[in-house]
Specification:
CATH topology of chain A: Amidase signature (AS) enzymes
Strand order of the largest sheet of chain A: 1-3-2-4-6-5-10-11-9-7-8
Radius of gyration of chain A: 20 Å
Largest sheet of chain A: 11 strands, mixed
Number of helices of chain B: 2
Helix content of chain A: 40-55%
CATH class of chain A: Alpha Beta
Largest sheet of chain B: none
Number of helices of chain A: 16
CATH superfamily of chain A: Amidase signature (AS) domain
Helix content of chain B: 40-55%
Order of helices and strands of chain A: HHHEHEHEHEHEEHEHHEHHHEHHEEH
Largest interface: A-B, 40 and 32 residues
Strand content of chain A: 5-15%
Structural class of chain B: mainly alpha
Shape of chain B: elongated
Oligomer: heterodimer
Number of domains of chain A: 1
Strand content of chain B: under 5%
Chain lengths: 467, 60
């Protein structure tokens, strides 16, 4: 299979399929063959479901031949982080604890992707229970970074990031409680959207921390990301955190430039709160210059310190996650991997008043951020402070959890979109994050697509996977 | 491993933690204390927490 097909985007594939120059069966067959050939090196999948995928691809092809086209996701291959339920398949959360946990019904996001005609290829690696990885002491090995197997691929949506960079599928879902979509997007050089809190249903998705959990699309291009969000976004009365807000047309502003937009730059996150790697800071500065030269009005804005968001978010996360995991930690602590167990035990001694103080603080932080965003259209900042570290460097892996600017927007619930922004001298991806107003995803896509077209970073793929 | 830590774990119902797990528990607790020290003091008494809960709308 040529790299052209492996790295085909959703939008491009939809055009080829609609012009009858590519069939869903041909496309899915080619991707399955590539996965079979390469995934033993990258461990993106926990469970590959080829028979199911081929049956769905044949059904899509037959429907289209009969003139019933469901839309641009019809016949499109995708994969799911293995915390998302698919009826009849195990949801393991990459943990011994949940081996054999067969889902009795689809998650709402799975239902929406299936209704749109998507073709599920399988379930993807994650950090155990979406917290604490990479781990070598679990029933499945951790996903590896296609840009360099020796380097961390980010997490917790690790298989989603790795599989996209490896050209195994054009679209995947991840989840993000403290940065778990945006971290692998940064490390693997792909596009990851954490939508506004409540924009995408979490029903049927294993919870980590109820008030911080988000589900979102991960793709290789901005246009594909918008396309996938369009499929999964919407109110779900069965999810208590779901927002009853109208769904925007996420592609409505594609093709528009950035002239006249007011873009805040949250520079203190990556220069003074935490000193970002010079190469990472340089690509952020270059991105700000690029949009300014294109006519955007850029200016620095100041939010509370990164460490405040981190502390607030980690207290809430630890308390809510312990509420979920307490019975298993009490009865089966040895069935967790070391990294997840340690992070989950952090909630054991928290007092009710600590949690409540953190959620009171959260509203103050949210209001301070809203004030700073009052007269801007969106903001630009870092996602990760560094390119990927080595996967065997425990100290750097631990630092990965605080050398980041993702948790602030789990705390506030605003959308955050991470896109590739260049490469380090060592050939590893660098990234930037765009942050919007609540339900302002379409504006993020507009600016991201402008940047993508101007730079071409999303067209680069790991070199050693050519076949 | 201190007896105090073991007692604390026992009181929390974490009876099955091994020595290795207790060391992780200790590190996790110390890490969390660092976050707790950043909690603001002197919040206004009427400062509400963030709510997920919403009352259902009027019956239709």
């Amino acid at each position: 299979m040529s790299d052209d097909l492996a790295y085909l985007g959703l939008a491009e594939a939809a055009e080829l399929i609609s012009a009858k120059r590519l069939s869903p069966v041909e496309y899915v067959t080619a991707l399955l063959a590539r996965i079979e050939r390469h995934d033993d090196k990258y461990n993106a999948f926990i469970a590959l479901t080829p028979e199911r995928a081929l049956t769905a691809a044949r059904a899509a092809e037959a429907e289209m031949a009969a003139g019933r086209w469901r839309g641009p996701f019809h016949g499109m291959p995708y994969a799911l982080k293995d915390i998302i339920d698919v009826e009849g398949l195990a949801t393991t959360a990459h943990s011994k604890i949940l081996i054999g946990n067969i889902a009795r019904r689809h998650a709402v996001v799975t239902e929406r992707l299936e209704a749109a005609g998507g073709v599920l290829l399988g379930k993807l690696s994650t950090h155990e229970f979406a917290i604490g990885g990479p781990s070598f002491d679990l029933p499945w090995p951790p996903a590896r970074n296609p840009w360099s197997r020796d380097h961390f691929c980010g997490g917790s949506s690790s298989g989603s990031g790795a599989g996209l960079a490896a050209g195994f599928f054009p679209a995947a879902l991840g989840s993000d409680t403290g940065g778990s979509i945006r971290n692998p997007a940064s490390m693997c050089g792909i596009v990851g959207m954490k939508p506004t809190y409540g924009r995408v249903s979490r029903r049927g998705v294993a919870p980590l921390a109820f008030s911080l959990d988000h589900v979102g699309p991960m793709t290789r291009t901005v246009r594909d990301n918008a396309l996938m969000l369009q499929v999964i976004a919407g109110h779900d009365p069965g999810d208590p955190g779901s927002a009853d807000e109208p769904v925007s047309d996420y592609g409505a502003m594609f093709g528009q430039d950035v002239k006249g937009l007011r873009i805040g730059v949250i520079r203190h996150f990556y220069t003074s709160d935490v000193a970002g790697d010079p190469e990472q800071v340089a690509v952020l500065d270059a991105a700000v210059n690029l949009v300014a030269e294109a006519g955007a009005e850029t200016r620095e804005i100041t939010l509370p310190a990164l460490q405040d968001f981190s502390a607030c978010g980690q207290i809430i996360l630890a308390a809510e996650a312990y509420a979920v995991h307490k019975p298993w930690l009490q009865e089966r602590p040895a069935d967790y991997g070391a990294r997840a167990r340690e992070r989950l035990l952090a909630g054991a001694t928290l007092r009710a008043v600590d949690y409540l103080q953190a959620v009171r603080w959260r509203l103050q932080l949210r209001d301070q951020v809203a004030h700073a965003f009052a007269d801007i259209d969106l903001a630009i900042t870092a996602s990760s402070m560094d390119p990927a570290c080595r996967i065997d460097d425990d100290e750097a892996l631990a630092a990965n959890y605080w050398r980041q600017a993702r948790m602030p927007f789990n705390v506030t619930g605003q959308p955050g979109l991470v896109i590739p922004a260049g490469f380090s001298k060592g050939g590893l991806p660098l990234s930037l994050q765009l942050v919007g107003h609540p339900f302002g995803e379409a504006m993020l896509y507009r600016v991201a697509q402008f940047y993508e077209d101007a730079t071409g970073w999303t067209k680069r793929h790991p070199p050693r996977l050519s076949d | 491993m201190t007896e105090e830590l073991r007692d604390k774990a026992r009181k929390l119902g974490l009876d099955h933690l091994t020595e290795e797990h207790l060391a992780q528990f200790e590190r996790a607790t110390i890490g969390m204390e660092r976050h707790l020290r950043r909690l603001p003091h002197g919040m206004p008494a009427a400062q509400e927490p963030a709510h997920v809960y919403r009352a259902k709308g009027e019956a239709s």
